[in-house]
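Sequence, please.
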């Protein structure tokens, strides 16, 4: 079930990043504005959710300059590829757990799964995780809720 996660980018991927980066490095300063990252990714036919970009922004632009270098941009692209691989793996796990193909997992099944993870979670911790995850109180967890639980978002 494990998705193929790249450790580093191929030469073709780096060239693709460079081409997109250059489109937004308008003054040839070897940096682009953080606000241009989503558009640069779009130029590479890669969609980025604003929430994801917000999460990784601070780790990439540690100096707070408002710009990213080509190296930082390729790091972001690699992070995006890893995030997509993780999401595909979680989608597959969710499909397996969604036995009735309803798009939701009963919280009782989720409780059983969390107990079996072997993370030495107490019953109280598991209940807190479930309550935090099933925020609408439906007694079920949809994929978005499951994803947030499994990725600690």
């Amino acid at each position: 079930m494990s998705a193929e996660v790249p450790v580093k980018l191929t030469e073709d991927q780096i060239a693709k990043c460079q081409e997109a980066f250059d489109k937004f490095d308008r003054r040839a300063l070897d940096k682009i504005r953080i606000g241009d990252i989503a558009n640069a990714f779009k130029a590479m036919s890669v969609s980025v959710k604003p929430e994801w970009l917000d999460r990784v922004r601070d780790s990439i632009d540690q100096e707070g300059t408002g710009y990213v270098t080509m190296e930082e941009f390729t790091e972001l692209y690699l992070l995006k590829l890893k995030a997509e691989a993780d999401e595909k793996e979680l989608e597959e796990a969710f499909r397996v757990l969604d036995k009735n193909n309803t798009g939701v997992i009963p919280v009782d099944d989720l409780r059983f799964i969390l107990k079996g993870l072997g993370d030495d979670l107490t019953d109280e911790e598991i209940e807190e995780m479930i309550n935090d995850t099933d925020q609408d109180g439906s007694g079920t967890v949809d994929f978005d809720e499951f994803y947030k639980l499994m990725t600690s978002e």
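The chain has two domains: 11-83, 98-151.
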